[in-house]
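Reopening this one. Same input as before:
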Amino acid sequence: MSKKNKKDKKPRPQPKPNRQIPISMIRAMKLLGPRHYLLHAREYPMLGCWIMEGWYEAGITPVVVAREQEPGKVMFAVCMVDLTCLGVKNAYTRTDFSLSKFERSLPELCAGNPEKCSLELAHEVIYGALEYAERYGFQPHPDFKVLMADLVLDPSDAHPRVDNVAFGKNGKPFYISGPYDDERKREFIFNTLMRTAGQGNFDFIMGLDGMPDLLDDDFEDGLVELTEDDEPKID
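Same output, byte for byte:
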């Protein structure tokens, strides 16, 4: 090969070095994660609502509100609702749940006995319990807002309250100490009820390891002791 031909020959292209993904693209991809779907949850169609069978007699129930994220996929919120005193005791959310897995999980989500309910009833139970609890100084569990369960629900005034759900028991707050309520929590609840409802205007049920030091002689007569066999199965 002549020197001239060697000069005319083009060098082979070198492989391009690996380049970092631009930050703008990373941010765009993150928008499609759980936070994105939950922030826009109300834009997705409602799939259905479920509550625990026998919820009214129990006075405490999980409420499941689910939306169709896309065909075959579900996003949902579960609120543990105490109708008699504390309102929303706990809450969590899930996105990108397959519809088949969601349907299989419903018994577990509803403490073994799911019962389909209307959207109006689900909202009345959750928001009504929230309002009742706030009247006596109790706020919903932080995860209700932190995990955006409130955004999976419609706004509180979006549906009429037609079921006339009653809160409290016998016209007053009724607290049952759950298996995970430690002494500090029970003391806080008791003191809050003493301040907001007043002595004699609420009922308080706890285990044998309760708070006798907080009770005076007049109130002690109205205290019901809860044995291990009688403890509620739902926190």
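So the earlier flakiness isn't reproducible anymore. For the record, The first helix runs from residue 3 to 8.
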